[in-house]
Amino acid sequence: MMLHPSYTDLLEVVNSETEQGEPPLVNSRYSIVMATAKRARQLIAGQPALVPSRGKKPLSVAVQELNESKIHIVGDEA
């Protein structure tokens, strides 16, 4: 299965908030997967979506939220 946006695109979005010269906030696809899975569980538990979500699966909503910078990863262990 192909993920759109790609992991590379998501890493760029997440790391776009770091200052010039600072190390990237997230270095691995694992961190992206863990963060979106955690957010998907929050959505399943009833938290409101931050993007239009009608008919979408929770993981797709979580990926879209991350891609649109509606949610943020705090540290590489998120």
Report on this model:
There is one protein chain. This protein has 78 residues and is mainly α. It has one domain (1-15, 24-78): RNA polymerase subunit, RPB6/omega (Eukaryotic RPB6 RNA polymerase subunit), CATH 3.90.940. Helices cover 45% and strands 0% of the residues. The chain has helices at residues 7-15, 29-44, 58-67. The two termini are 24 Å apart. The model has no long low-confidence stretch (mean pLDDT 87).
> Per CATH, what is the topology?
Eukaryotic RPB6 RNA polymerase subunit
What is the radius of gyration computed over CA atoms, rounded to a whole number of angstroms? Answer: 12 Å
CATH class: Alpha Beta
Low-confidence stretches: none
Tell me which CATH architecture applies here: Alpha-Beta Complex
Q: How many beta-strand elements?
A: 0
Largest sheet: none
* Domain tally: 1
Percent of sequence in beta strands: under 5%
What would the principal axes of the Cα set say about the shape?
elongated
